[in-house]
Amino acid sequence: MSGKSLLLKVILLGDGGVGKSSLMNRYVTDRFDSQSFHTIGVEFLNRDLEVDGRLVTLQIWDTAGQERFKSLRTPFYRGADCCLLTFAVDDLQSFQNLGCWKKEFMYYSDVRDPERFPFVVLGNKVDKEQEREVGADEARAWCEENGCYPYFETSAKDDTNVGSAFEAAVREVIKGEDQIDHSLLSSTIDLHGNRKATRSGCC
Ligand SMILES: Nc1nc2c(ncn2[C@@H]2O[C@H](COP(=O)(O)OP(=O)(O)OP(=O)(O)O)[C@@H](O)[C@H]2O)c(=O)[nH]1
Ligand SMILES: [Mg+2]
């Protein structure tokens, strides 16, 4: 492990009631509340972790999914490093709305490179297997078609895959940064016309 801690902002988006706050609370405080209230606006919590030898401070922004809070949540999309698109596997409508959430995020976040922006998709409430309305294959197909996003089936209630999903978000950001670093390395040209294997002085 080496270097300074990397501060990453990840944002949880998805319909009201799919379990965004519960996922954040499970991950940061290891608690689950079966009677949680709807979020109003946004809330955030930090958690430090180590991923592949890198120290990371994950700043998790939990947003209000209900439509009436749209104007309270959208100003917080800017500066996000990764977006966790969340639905509940027992709620087909929440899955069908994923595209709208992606669109809303893209519109208000103003990301520099929309094609490469890292999304991770979470199908939450997998403990409610009997009431499932969205199959894992269907969800994976959506992820494949929309940008090869990693997909995790989670349960904030049972703590299934919650840590793995947040770690995947970190890995996606680091992967994206490494690709940018790599392209800078391979395209840096010195003033004498020779390609230089250095990161500095690119502009
Ligand atoms: N069975 C089950 N219930 C869950 C799970 N995650 C959340 N819930 C319940 O679903 C309800 C809504 O959860 P929240 O975390 O408040 O949902 P939210 O996405 O934050 O909702 P908004 O704040 O309105 O956007 C609560 O009653 C939770 O206890 C889960 O993994 N399994
Ligand atoms: Mg909430």
UniProtKB/TrEMBL annotation:
GO molecular function: G protein activity; GTP binding
Main localization category: membrane
Regions annotated as coiled coil: none
EC number: 3.6.5.2
Keywords: Cell membrane, Cytoplasmic vesicle, GTP-binding, Hydrolase, Lipoprotein, Membrane, Nucleotide-binding, Phosphoprotein, Prenylation, Protein transport, Transport
Compartment list: Cell membrane; Cytoplasmic vesicle, Phagosome membrane
Protein family according to the UniProt entry: Belongs to the small GTPase superfamily. Rab family.
Official protein name in the record: small monomeric GTPase
Organism: Alosa alosa (allis shad)
